[in-house]
Specification:
One of its GO terms (biological process) is protein processing. This protein is α/β, with parallel strands linked by helices. About 25% of the residues lie in helices and about 20% in strands.
Length: about 170
């Protein structure tokens, strides 16, 4: 399952849904569901547990502009969001674990943007350049021939890993 999320009216924050839409248009292997959301909500929990691997796509603000990262995620109930209407991916995983005693292998592919202003309906050139590397990460993550357990990614730790890719 692939979930792109972010606001289409906040500039680079739209990169998650835009990448998901590109993947959907390309066509995915059988069994790979692709969805776009403005926000992550609790209703996704039942869908997440139906899949062995989940890839979240999002924009990031905590890195160098244009940096594309892939992190393995683990359940974390303390990753509580500050609003009741949307959740952090790790919090969704904690709900999967609590309610269903099942957690899919989960990754977050993100690109560090530069503009998140409201009423901005276009990506910056920096975010545009990050689309292809994000697509490459997702293609690798959904390839059944790629054994990508979290301990097999470069620099992996048991709880969370991060592999940055810098875009010139």
């Amino acid at each position: 399952m692939i979930i792109g999320y972010g606001s289409p009216i906040r500039g680079d924050d739209a990169i998650g849904p835009l990448v998901a839409d590109r993947l959907q248009a390309e066509g995915m292997p059988e069994g790979v569901e692709v969805i776009s959301r403005h926000i992550l909500t609790a209703e996704l929990v039942a869908d997440l547990v139906e899949h062995d691997r989940v890839v979240f796509l999002d924009a990031a603000v905590d890195g160098a502009p244009g940096e594309v990262r892939c992190r393995s995620l683990a359940p974390d109930a303390s990753a509580m969001s500050t609003m009741a209407h949307f959740l952090d991916p790790r919090e969704l995983l904690a709900w999967c674990e609590t309610l269903y005693d099942k957690v899919p292998e989960t990754f977050l592919v993100s690109a560090c943007g530069t503009s998140f202003d409201y009423s901005n309906y276009v990506l910056t050139p920096t975010a545009e350049a990050a689309i292809e590397p994000m697509l490459d990460w997702v293609r690798r993550l959904i390839d059944p021939s790629e054994p990508l357990a979290s301990d097999q990614l470069p620099g992996a730790s048991p709880r969370e890993t991060e592999t940055p890719l810098r875009i010139p």
